[in-house]
Amino acid sequence: MKVVxxxxxxxxxxxxxxxxxxxxxxxIGDKPILWHIMHTYAHYGHDDFLVAGGYKGEMxxxxxxxxxxxxxxxxxxxxxxxxxxxxxxxxxxxVGVIDTGLDTATAGRVMRLKxxxxxxxxxxxxxxxxxxxxxxxxxEFHKSHGRLATVTAVRPPARFGALGIDGxxxxxxxxxxxxxxxxxxxxxFVFEPTVFDYLDDETVPLERKPLERIAADGQLMAxxxxxxWRPMDTLRDRQELQALWEEDRAPWxxxxx
Length: 257
Known about the structure:
By secondary structure, the protein is α/β, with parallel strands linked by helices. The chain contains nine helices and 16 strands.
């Protein structure tokens, strides 16, 4: 099953980092956030990836082109360029990085991957958010309801600390709790191949007309994920994710080191 990762946007709200690289290549713990997302899927046995590139996509291509050399130890004979491999890493992913255009909308990026996705169920998520979603249970849910599409619904963290006040006394203090009301699109989609029947305009976001029509037709189901989910939209988001990683408290790290 293919895993599509949307990685072509400009990431303007994270301009401090994305002026020189695409947002999926911004690092958490010395590894691109894209690497973290892919590890989540691979942990559940899904390691056949299609990365929809765009803005500075050549950096993503270069990263994976050199991945084998950068993640293994070897001795080089400078006389003839031959290499003696000293160890070999355990990562055996299949990764395609496809240029889907600089300013292409998200629906268009998916449309441009159709020939590589083929006529099969596929998963899709964004290249700038991490979560501890159980991909196995997500797929079980999707297969159980028989509809066209599944979106993972999440509760976003509040922007500010929450106070429980009794009169003038603070009874409880919670820094950035999950919001208690409403669910939002957290990515981690599952689509049947017939989703392409709803994709007929490359200029519109996937999240607007296509998903609105799918929902209106009763074909969109929500897998409710009450666990960890965080986007990396701003520099502050990136700093918070980095702190969790450095403190060995990263909930999205479901794989073994």
